[in-house]
Structure formats: C-alpha cells, structure tokens
Amino acid sequence: MFNYRGERISKRRIKLIHHISILCIVLSLLFSATSFFLGGYGLTLFLIGVAVIFYYTSKIVIKKPHKARLFFMLNFNISVAITASYFGKGSSIEFFLMYAIGVTFIIFSFRRERKMVALFTTLPILLWATLYLTNFSIFHSDAINHETVTTVIYPLSITFTLLLVAFQLSYYSYLNAGYSNSIHYKKQEAIDASNAKSDFLSTMSHEIRTPLNAVIGLSHILGDNNPRKDQVQNIEALNYSGKILLNLLNNVLDFSKMQSTKIALDNVPTDLSSAFKQIKKIHETSCIRKGITMNLNIDKDIPVVWLDIVRFNQVINNLVTNAIKFTDKGSVTLSIKKEAINDDKVKILTEIIDTGIGIPKDKQETIWESFTQASNTTNRLYGGTGLGLPIVKSIIESMDSSINIDSEIGKGSRFYFEVDLKIASDKDLKENNLKQTYNFKNKKVLLVEDNQINVMVSKQILEKAGLTVEIAYNGLEAVQMVKANTYDIVLMDIQMPVMDGYTSSIEIRKFNTKIPIIALSASVFMEVKNKIHESGMNGFIFKPFDPEDLLDQIQKEIFT
C-alpha cells in the first residue's frame, strides 16, 4: 500500500477513502433518483455512472490506493460541478466543492504529497470560479424550473453537505477513540515491560551486591588488621576484584538509569595528581601480565578543581581497561594536561592512547551504541558487555563535553576529551578530606540482617568504631527487640524472610516514632528509595557500602 512515490499509505487513510466512497455512492443514487422524478433523465444516467465509479474506487482502494484516490477526487469534483451547473445557482450544490477542498488534506499527506494537495485544492476552486463566470450554464437544463430547485434540490444539497461533514466528524471521533484505547493499551504494555525490567535488575542487583558486600567488606577489614607483607598483595587483589565486579554491575545499572534520565553529578574539591596515583597501580598488574607498559602523565601544576571524581574515575577506568584489553604489545598511556586557565576555570585535556588493534573507521560511530563492539570477532576474542563506552559517552556529555576518537587499524587508538572545570581552593580540599572522628561510646545499634556473612562483616565494622551491636535475623524479630530494648539506631535490611524491612519499619513506627532507622539496601532503583521513605525509614545506604559512609550516616542520625 504505497503512494505514487513508493511511500506507504496508512491503513487509516485507506479505510477512510473506502467509507467515503460508499457514502458517495448512496448520495449519487439519491440525487439520481431525485433527478429522474424531476424529469432530468440525462443527469440521472450521469449520476448512475458517477455511483459506478465510486463503487469501483471502494473496491480497488486496498490494492491500488493511489489510483483509487485519483479516481475519487476527479469523480467527486467533476460530478459536483456538472450537477451544480445542471440544477443552477439556486441549488447550492457548489458548496460540495468546499468539502472537496477539505477532504484533500485527509486523503493526501501534506508532508509527503504536497503536489497532489496543491492540485486537488486548486481544482475545486477553478471549477467553482468557472460556474460563477458562466452563470451555471455549462450543462444547464430548462426541464427543471427554478421553484423546484429552490424547494426540493436546495434542501437536499444542504442536507447532504451537512451529512458528509457529520460523517467526517463522527468517523474521526470513532477513529480517535479507537486509537486512544490502542495508545492506552500500548502505554500499559510499555509500563509493564519497564516494571518487569526494573524488577529483574533490582533482583539481580540485590543477589549480586549481597555477597559482593561481604567480599569488599572483608577485604577492607583484612587490610585494616595489619596483615603480613606476604598477605598484602592477596588482600589488594581480592579487594580490586570485588571493585571490578561492582563496576561491571554499576555499568549495567547505570545503563538502565541513563535510558530515562540525565546523570546527576556530585562535584567535590579534587586534586587530580593525587586522585590518579592509584590508577597506574590498579592497572599495572594487567599490563605486566600482557607484557605491555602503562604510562601515566599528569601535569603537576593543575589546580584543585570541582569534579565528580567517582564518575570521572569511572570514565578513566573504562577507557584504560578497554585500552589494555585491546593492546597486546607496546603501551597504554593516560595523559591529563592543562590546556587553558583563567580566574575561576581551567580546561583539562584527557587522553587515553594505546598501541592496540585499532578501530575501523566505519565502526567508530557504532562503538558508542549499547551492547555493541567493533565486530563479532572482537566480542569473541576479548569479551565484554558493550556498555563501557556508551556509559563513558553519557558521563562526558553530562559534563557538557564530548569524547572523540582517532584510530588506525593495527596502530592503535586515541580517545580524548576536554572539560571545563571550576577551580576550588586548598581550603575546600582540606575541609572535604578532613578525617571524620566518631564518638559512639555507650551507643547501641540493632543490626537487622538475615545473611550471616553480612552480619559478620557489618558487626566487625560497627564494633571497631565503638558501637555495641545486637542482631535480629528478620523483620519480626526486629519489631520484638525494639519493643523490649532501647537502641540508638536500627540498621534495617530490606529483603528478609518472615517479615521484610518495609513492613518491620511500619510496625516499629506504630509504637516508636523517634528511633532512627537506616535501610541497608542492595537495590539502587528510585521505586525502592520511595518505598524506604514511605515506610518511615530515615535514610538508606547502598550495599556494598563504604564503611566511612555508613558510620557518617549513623553519626548524623544519632546526633542530629
């Protein structure tokens, strides 16, 4: 179903032509019968022929819509002009030509078929002008007197014109109601699909983050307990592996969030030269294993800047990891240079350069698409999710910049971007890095958690900070313990057997509205955050959590 230019014609437009053609058959036959009884036998035969053409139009419209539309418009305009001339000016049949002008915009697409629209809006105007210039005498008949035209034909023409307009309005109201229901149904389908995706990602997040919390937490505890020198490397490897897995999980979740919302940046005072000292250490092991060199070049005179260092690190780590992955000989270089500076801003150029396999020119656009790699061979040989670069692009765009690439097959790639950053003061940096001290003497916390390993990790972190810790293994047990004892704060897991964290918090709030309750959630989705607040909790900490973040939150809730 295509128009004369090979473009598809909508089913709605084809249906409309079919129904209008049937209506015009009825009107033609009614006018034909009227003409017969009034003695206009020539017009009667003509209008029967018009009805036959409309019938033909209604039959071919599905298979040959372009041809059917031409037949309809020509037949309608010419038949109206001849009938109006036959009955004379007093019949007002020429007003059907106004309908012909309007229906043109319905039968043809103004955006795609402007020539046809111009032709069939001009044709009725020319026919109308011809009728007036010839005083309706082109096909005029004296067989029908003026009084008959005024008393019979005029009311019929006005009635049929209104009937056509009413049909058009009713038909469109019917179509709109149908499309409204269809849109509502499709909207509900989309909402259900989105909810299913969120539920899946939330469950996946929880199931992975819960053991990951133990891996990162235990490695942190082991590192703080003065390990032997021969243990340090193993502990660091364990901690690094946990963070790599967390980064992969965050990439998947970040991709989901980036589909629907812009990334919110959390800028803090940052000393770039200090912040990236660990970059080389983190990635050097992978480079040594592959027999390549890792170079780090950072200008020493870059001032302290306001920067979301977590997101910036995510960009750098994704790009460096990619560079190492696709480089089998040579080197990978991270370069951060000061390009320009004024009173309150500095322009920073960041480059990640490798001597790897390179990227073909025809693939340098597609690599930014989600779940896409340069080729199937690349995916098979090197693996990966295909999410790292899309997330890099989204983060850099949220910084009001864009990432560029220079690459040549067999010689390597250069990813680079410039960002304008506000300059921060040394005072801002010192205040941000100020070591937090805690005074939890005689403070008692109820930890509500069903996972034994998470209990072990969290208890060690809390007790090391000076807190007295008691454990509840489900929400119902937590409600009973809060009733029977006095606690300064409750740390509440969300997903637990017997009674979940939401229900437990609601029950606690029925008899205790003052005790702070912090959710320990392995889900980062907005609907979970909303439920946390609705159930009466004071805040939340994501698993795996940074021990300092958890202790900061506890101190804030207890002492404010």
Question: How does this model look, in words?
Answer:
Helix content is 59%, strand content 13%. A hairpin with a 3-residue loop joins strand 4 (331-341) and strand 5 (345-354). It has 18 helices and 12 strands. The strands form 3 sheets. Strands 2-4-5-7-6 form a 5-stranded mixed beta sheet. Helix 7 (229-258) crosses helix 12 (388-398) and helix 15 runs parallel beside helix 16. The longest helix has 79 residues, at 146-224. By secondary structure, it is an alpha/beta fold. The chain has helices at residues 11-37, 41-60, 65-87, 96-107, 114-133, 146-224, 229-258, 272-275, 277-290, 309-325, 376-382, 388-398, 426-433, 452-464, 475-484, 501-511, 526-534, 547-559, and strands at 268-270, 293-298, 305-307, 331-341, 345-354, 403-408, 412-422, 444-448, 468-472, 489-493, 517-521, 539-542. The protein is elongated, with a radius of gyration of 38 Å.
